[in-house]
Amino acid sequence: MSNPFFKNTGPYEINDLLKSINLKNQSFPEEKVIDIKDLSSSQYGEITFFHTKKYNDLAKTTKASYCLTTENLKSILPSTCKAIISDKVLLHTSMITQIFYPDSVNDDFDTTVEDINKTQYKNKVKFGRNVLIGKNVNIGSNCLIGHNSIIEKNVSIGDNCSIGSNVIIRNSLIKNNVYILDGCVIGKKGFGFFPDKNSNLRYPQVGVVIIEDNAEIGCGSTIDRGSLSNTIIGKNTYLDNQIHIAHNVKIGDNCVIAGQVGFAGSSTLGNNVMIGGQAGISGHLKIGNNVQIGGGSGVIKNIPDNTRVMGYPAKDLKNFIRENK
Prior knowledge:
2 domains, Udp-n-acetylmuramoylalanyl-d-glutamate--2,6- Diaminopimelate Ligase, Chain: A, domain 1, UDP N-Acetylglucosamine Acyltransferase, domain 1, 325 residues, globular, ten-stranded mixed beta sheet
């Protein structure tokens, strides 16, 4: 599911799209493209992108009609997916995403918010002082919202949730029995841009943050919404204070993550993962189920199921202890 809150301005004729991003040397039979999505969620009539061998398995089974990719990777795509060759796959993907979703690049403050006392939630929610609520917000029963918190536009909050003080939430789907503690920022755009000599090109962020049932987000934590996919926190997962989760990260169920851990974009954690404080997880990695990562570790490669690692680069715990006696 992409972000249901940004308006899709498509469809667009495929050759017109390519001309608009200066890929004029390729042309296809006239056909309209209705959306842009990631490899796993894209369907017939949509365009996707494939830029690294890390996603070979997803590329082999993508249902997209078109894919921005490189000459070296095009053979991995199924015959039903037409390759669009690019030497700047991510840049061209960003440009097409911005065409479909022009409102997704900037993240200015929400001008639709109003005091909760002027909304339908005045008598439905227990709240502190200076609480603001935006448009297209749904809040379930038996919820609490602390002082100076802002639930900006496009947020759904389930039943029995507790939102602390000085919290900002937007573009997020929060399920039942979720605790979001003081000072969190949830659903703002991720850190996506392409450096240029004169100015940086921002990457559109059209995903959402999804926080599943019974999760807890510690004080001062930041969870960025996804770019083309979603950022997901699994059921019964607990985050300590001051954790940063970048766009497209997916954390499984029953995970426990200690303070000041940082996740780079598009990494995936399995279920029952435990991570010690101040560890760092690089981007586009896959961490298996039942993994334990020691505090201060630097994870720069995939970790299989049922593994305990520590150090930088993170290695098997027994080897780490042996080498550091």
